[in-house]
Structures are given as structure tokens and as C-alpha cells.
Amino acid sequence: MNIVKNFKNWRKYKETYGELVRLNNRELADMGIQRGDIDHVARRAAGY
To answer: What residue stretches are annotated with the YjiS-like domain (predicted)?
Structure first.
């Protein structure tokens, strides 16, 4: 079960990270995120 859970968390991280990276700085700022915070935000979204 841990393998499945870890895979789902990893996939959620990759999806979130990819979506945020594609946004421009203005769109990120509208959400209160700086480009340097993308990794942290994606990890939190995935439950890390």
C-alpha cells in the first residue's frame, strides 16, 4: 500500500509542479506564489 500511496503523491507533485511552472510571474503573483516557491508549494500539495 505504501508504494501506491507514494506513487500517487509523486504524481500529484509532478502535476502540480508542471502546472505552476507553466504560469508566468504575473499569474503566480496573483496567487501569492513566487517562482522560487513552486517546489515547496507542489510538495505541500502532494502531502510531503
So the answer is: 4-39
pLDDT in tens, the chain (48 residues): 799 999 999 999 999 999 999 999 999 999 999 999 999 999 999 999
DSSP string, 4-30: HHHHHHHHHHHHHHHHHHHS-HHHHHH
Smallest CA-to-CA distance from 11 within 31, 3, 34, 28 is with 3
Return the domain boundaries, the chain.
2-46
Helix (H, G, I), strand (E, B), or coil: what is residue 47? coil
Q: What torsion, rounded to 10 degrees, do the Cα atoms 28, 48, 8, 22 define? A: 20
